[in-house]
Amino acid sequence: MTTFFLPSLFGLTCLVGIILIFNGLRGLVRRVLYVPDFKKDSRGTVRTVEGGGTRFWGMVCLAAGVLFVLVGFAGFQRVYEFQNSPAFLRYMVPAPDGYEILYSMAANGGYEIAYTYPSNAADVRQRFLDRLREEGWTIATDTPFSVVAQRGEHCLTLSFVGWSGEERRSFQAKVIVSYSTNPDS
Q1: What is the pTM (predicted TM-score) of this model?
Q2: Same structural domain for residues 96 and 174?
Q3: Fewer CB within 10 A of the end CB, N or C, for the chain?
Q4: Across-strand partners of 62?
Q5: What is the DSSP code string of 55-111?
């Protein structure tokens, strides 16, 4: 929804605003210049009538158009900023329970988040795979240490870096998730 519907909605809002601005200006210009309308009456005779529209409705259309364009542009910008932030990655890939975020940063034209888990790497890997499948991702590449998942134009690379600790119960599985919109990267 966020990747397609909202940008389309805000783009449509801008388009409606532009149409309203055009109609408002057209109405104001016609009224100020007294541009006549030519209409046929019931007998087919062409008659000249006073310029269409009123100054008030022209100004209302103009103001509404400007408002629509501003709202559409601001909304589109907010969606763009969200899609280019680590928060979007957390939205795209809801991680399994029990994680802690080590860091999140922009990287390689996308961004990445590192998670740690208080369990072994194989268990965490399986939980991530299950969660990705639940969210509709297609697993393109699956190796013991990395997974590449795709959904439309979105591409995720999960790297299972390893774990630390001396006893099994204190192991920390570390997962780095990198996101990009180019499946070939």
Answers
A1: 0.45
A2: yes
A3: N
A4: none
A5: HHHHHHHHHHHHHHHHHHHHHHHHHHHHHTSHHHHHHHSPPPTT-EEEEEEEETTEE
